[in-house]
Amino acid sequence: MHRSLIILLFVLTAAIIAVMTTQQGCSCQHPVATTVVEDTVNNIPIDTALRARLETFAASPRPQGQFALHVFDLTANKPVYGFQETLALPSASCLKLLTGIAGLKLLGTDYTYRTEILAKGKVAADGTWKGDIAFRAGLHPQLMEADMVPLAAALRKMGVKKIGGKLIVDLTVTEPVQAETHWYPWDLTFAKYGLLYKGAPRVVQTLKVVLRGQGIAVADSQIVKRSVPAGFRPVSTASLPVDEVIKRMWKNSSNTQSTSLLYTIGSKLGAREQHAAKGVDYLRHFLRDSLALADTALVIHDGCGLCTHNRLSPEALTTILRYGYQDKKIRPFLERNLSVAGVDGTLAREMSHSKTRGKVWAKTGTLSHPYGISSLAGFCKSSNGHTLAFAIMDSEMSVLDARVLQNKLCRLLVE
Fold this sequence. Notes:
Mean pLDDT: 90
Order of helices and strands: HHEEHEEHEEHEEHHHHHEEEEH
Number of strands: 12
Structural class: alpha+beta
Largest sheet: 6 strands, antiparallel
Distance between the termini: 49 Å
Strand order of the largest sheet: 2-1-12-11-10-9
Number of helices: 11
């Protein structure tokens, strides 16, 4: 017996050393991915009754079509249940979860869009600006003509009535935003894009209008498109925190805001053109390198989910959610910017029953062509107090039928 005890202790010690060595090695090679793929062995149990309910739910009769789901217990750090969880299906707007989380990781959660009026010189007694004025625009996705008026008004407040030198226009994007190859023509209305995504001619025309509206004279011959040289000082700035963009793209499922964030990602990575393509390339690398999702069946074509060729799986979606939840800076974005069941966003009229209202916060994904595509991925509190990450995906199925299944799943999760 004494001999058996010694052998048992030796085996346990060797196992602990092996686990520690493996963890240390992974941390060095994949420092980001290890925040998602963590050791799931702990003493916190999952709800086995919930697992049984989910098994019954998955086995129950349902409308014809593709169907898959995955539930992960974030509190216990263990999977609860999966049904065809690795099946890659059209993700629709649930893809915005990847765009938002990957974008926040790259840009930083304190990222701010800035659009500026700058100046170099001084104002003469007659109101002529002796020097140059510059307009420098980033990729502020919500900037409209009305937002540019205060920028011009700041010059007027300085006493400027006429620009004597050059009006420099420094734009990050000079061509109008283009639709992705597989988008349907009616999917994304160009008019809903912010001014800075409508091309240089439109921006320059609007800039002239707002300046002249403030009584500041400028001739077309004075306008040059180039980078702002050194030595200019800021006069006025229009700013927008990235939180406002994330809110619209998640809570309201804005395709324009999501595409704008994709352009911002591309710009951050140094793209001078083809910003969207650079952004998509980053999302693909993030999926593979940071999330350790190397399945070639997972496909990314855009940043908003309009392309029916996009493919994610329920397990991929819960992995994306886990990554964001485990990041202390990104988690608050998920907690305040996802739609809340029966309360706001795209879930305002969904799951308004007392059992689910306010207990589920998630991202919806819906496309009704060429066949029904509907997904739901997010978080909820289960009856045992654990926080769950879940994803349910339906394809080739009526969207209305898919939503019934999604509502049933969420009731099972919170009851």
